[in-house]
Amino acid sequence: MTTPILEIEDLYARVGDKEIIKGFNLTINKGEIHAIMGPNGAGKSTLSNILCGKPGYEVTSGSVRFKGKDLLVMSPEERACEGIFLAMQYPVEIPGVPVTTFLKHAVNAIRKHRGQAELDTMDFIKMVREEGKKFKLDAEMIKRAVNVGFSGGEKKRLEALQMAVLKPDFAILDEADSGLDIDALKIVAEGINSLRDGRRSMLIITHFQRLLNHVVPDFVHVYADGHIVKSGGKELAVELEEKGYAEFEREK
Amino acid sequence: MAGLLQQVSLPGEEIPWLNEIRRRGRMVFEATGIPTAKTEAWKYTKPRELGGDDFVLALPSNNLDASIPNLAFDSYRICFENGIFNPRQSILPQGVEVLPLIEVIMFHPEYRTLINANIQLERFPFAALNSAYLNEGVFIHIDSKVEIKKPLTILYHTDNKNQNLLCNLHNLILLDEQASAKLIEYHCYKGELKSRYFVNVVNEIYLRRGAFLKHYKVQDEAFKSNHIALNCVDEASNAVYQAFCLQKGANIARNETHVLLKEEGAFAEINGAYVMNGWATLDTTTDIEHLAPNTISHQLVKGVIGGDAKGVFQGKIHIAPLAIKTEGTQLHKALLLSDTAEVDVKPELEIFADDVKCSHGAASGELDEDKLFYMRSRGIKEEEARRLLIDAYLEDVISKIEDEKIASWIRLMAK
Fold first, then answer.
1. Interface pTM, i.e. ipTM
2. Closest Cα in chain A, distance from residue B388 (Å)
């Protein structure tokens, strides 16, 4: 039996005067991995920002439900506490805030929301160090300020580490592979796959097929001009890679 | 009504030279008055409210019977309660001269040349006012090559009990050749947050050849009080003065530091932070005079301003013609948390020598929305995210404090 975790219905949204999302529909069930592929500038990041509640975007009509609740009325922190995670295309540098402090505040905020006790600091640091090893981020790096002095690949690995520590029910991976060399891509992909447990859902946003060779999706959607123009299985990604986006843009 | 200048009987009136200092202080303050916006040095910080106020001079009968606030570190203690030295609450080190200033004036006239030696009263009206009442304060003398490991804390504890108390304090700090010490000044209040009082401090610091003083200050006065402090530092060759001042209280406060790098190799680092809300004006003013070759000064001051508050930074670096191969740097940064928060910055460089390295910079900005969103997207509540970002903003200046226990205390006080 399928249980929807995310239901987007006829969504329209804009930034300033510019309409970017135009009649977007998508339902993701528990445990499913979806990929959205589309050309640069089609508004893929707008979609992920709207799902996470980033200020500056205006939803003009349509609805988004997360686990049956109205997502659009929630603050970004409420959404995170409910189980949404966004691995960002451009992770932000926060000088003066060490990774461990940042993650500890995040973990405890989410635990508090769930009515769980705060984690003991020593246990927490041990856990982050263990998880860090999986993403080749050593103890020295997780003591440093968030993303400060991190290379592009290290930033992406830190996003994956955060996801592993926060254990969301639904993760959005926005261009998780951009800027990664092949080794780093494998590390990130392995991390993502290790979180794939049949219950957790994911939305992978990308314009290359590359990451999808390592994290194989259940469904692939082609996104152009603010909505989905075609949906299919994992083979659609291969077709896209061969034909390019232009063909699909014409089809609609 | 009793204003700032009152006729009072003070100890030591039989000493002519003391009377002369007091008379001159009174005369200069009468002539200059309370600075207004027309006084260039007080363009941004206007202590106008002091004019109409009714003051009660701090006297020993005003002593307050309060327990001492806890300090987070082991320290000697020199206690002023309501502007009066209280030996019973003080814990003084052995083998170091720590005396009430008036005792030094009466019994050790050899130190009298140190008083106001570098302070031109006409330039500093509140130092003139301070001299008019010269009496309270402490004299600290550390002998040559003596290192005091434990910090010396001067604790100023004030509670006005509905009186508008005027506290004038004058401290003389003398470190002989290669002596070393840590001095902490902690200004705090007891009782009503709305207490009104005026604390007017002058510190004269003399660092002889190779002496090393770390000077930390926390100004946490009641929010309707006024606080004016002048630190005048005189450095001989290879002396080191490292200062950090956190200002977070008072309605109008100025912490002014005037450093004279008189001989080769003298070094000064003047750092600070201020954190404010409401309608306060917190002012940091510096004047660093490089008077000899190979002298070095660094300044870093960061402010966090919310509500209708105003931050002021006036920083001057003067390099005299002889002072070649000197280095002077200065940086002020402010974080504005509201649309009505204000910051006024006046950097001044006066360079009369060639072959010097000198720089200054100022920046102000708001909390970064992208950083806030990044933290919130991980579940951290907006208020908490803001708090973390503000702490992080101040971290690079607080982390310059080498003593970890003192740094932790100041970090906590800045929250």
1. 0.95
2. 7
